[in-house]
Amino acid sequence: xxxxxxxxxxxxxxxxxxxxxxGKVTTHNVRFLxxxxxxxxxxxxxxxxxxxxxxASDPAYxxxxxxxxxxxxxxxxxHLHAWFSPPEHALTDDDWRYQPYLIEYPENILREKVAxxxxxxxxxxxxxxxxxxxxxxxxxxxxxxxLIDNGYLVDCSVTPRVDWRNASGAPQGNGGTDYRHFxxxxxxxxxxxxxxxxxxxxxxxxxSIQYRYGALTNRLKKVWNDVRGKKRGASVNWLRPxxxxxxxxxxxxxxxxxxxxxxxxxxxxxSEFMPDGSPxxxxxxxxxxxxxxxxxxxxxxxxxxxxxxxxxxAQQKISAASR
Length: 323
Description:
The chain has 323 residues and is α/β, with parallel strands linked by helices. It has helices spanning 33-42, 53-56, 59-70, 95-98, 107-125, 141-149, 215-227, 246-258, 284-302, 310-322, and strands spanning 5-12, 47-51, 75-80, 131-134, 154-155, 187-190, 193-197, 203-204, 209-211, 236-238, 263-269, 306-307.
């Protein structure tokens, strides 16, 4: 590639699921997605909309997705929230309260949920699903093999330098996945150990996440926390808007490219484009500030990167390997 790829990934899901523990899911944020899609197209970028059950069941969203696919201006991928995605299987006495990870379910249920969501999306959009991100960032070898068996080419669930074990799911579980020792660059994963490169056909594209205070400072901080018996991950910056963090996002881009990566990966949730759709952007003024930040970031990235979807990036890897 002449320039690093800019991969825009969007967890496309119901409204403000951070505070929703009732099971009454709404999808009003669909109305706010065309503005972001237009912004991406303005700068020549192609977002990958990683879509979960409630959004795939919303006719307005399906229309939106079919349009961008027809114009080849983005991609629809799969995102799975296990507690709400069929087939139903009660893992706790209140799955909406605990929001258990898919990796906590029995393997047969995990596989049925992956197959159901894949079929639902392929039926809705009349296109093979090839890209994926796990709900709540929880991923393991069983999940990876289920994706491979359903024909996926690329996953983007890994968050290097981040330990999710303190983020609880089912009370009887062990929390989320510890990614602190995972690669921070593209790799074909080992289906028997997803923290290592292997010969599976599933390409892993870890999120662009960098230490906030420098590697040495964070190593010392981790040692100190370990001595005190605390499970605390290093402070990190993501390529993800949180309001007023354009400088930090640019720094993540520069650090990621300087360490030799040929892509940078951005993420946001679809509901964050809607006022009060998330804890971060609570009103219209917050949304306008978000778009100001996005304009600054995207205009800065336009000359430094090339936009592509997750699957387009994966296909370039396949093409390069076959030469």
